[in-house]
Request: fold
Amino acid sequence: MHEQFEAIHPFLDGNGRLERLLIAFFLIERGRLSQPLLDLSAYIEAHRQDYYDLLQRVRTHGGWKGWLQFFITGVTEIAREAVGQADHFMGLREKFRAKLQDKPKALALLDEHFLNPYMSMAKAERVLKVSNPTAKQAVMLLQRKGMLEEITRGTWGKLYLAKPIMDTIEMIGKGK
Reply:
């Protein structure tokens, strides 16, 4: 499917992004993925010349075997990286949770930071469904434990960042 879309190349721009989305949607439709989490962009970029050469070989010589091997290798490599990244995040989460075992409000905020590492006090109140003083206690506990830091330095509208989580996201984004 990817090769056929590339061969047709129906748009002036965005064909590659759409092709990669189609891969994920196809795998979802076939029950191989539950969400569109597979992104081959980094693999294709890292092997750009092979990618183009193998696509051309399909067109000129019917070289499907080489193309399919390239593609399957890419899926395998990206999936393995994703498993490693998930393991890293789970380890970080469990390490933090162990420090907060008897603090259910702080645990709930911690879990929310794994969805989005930024949080305001108003969001903490909404997430916990509590008043400002109670939310503030949970936020301050996360700060004392080194899991959260204020990044605005203001009196009002403070914004907090779960820096260890953001550092992990950035590390993963760099392929480490």
Summary: Residues 23 and 29 are 10 Å apart (CA to CA).
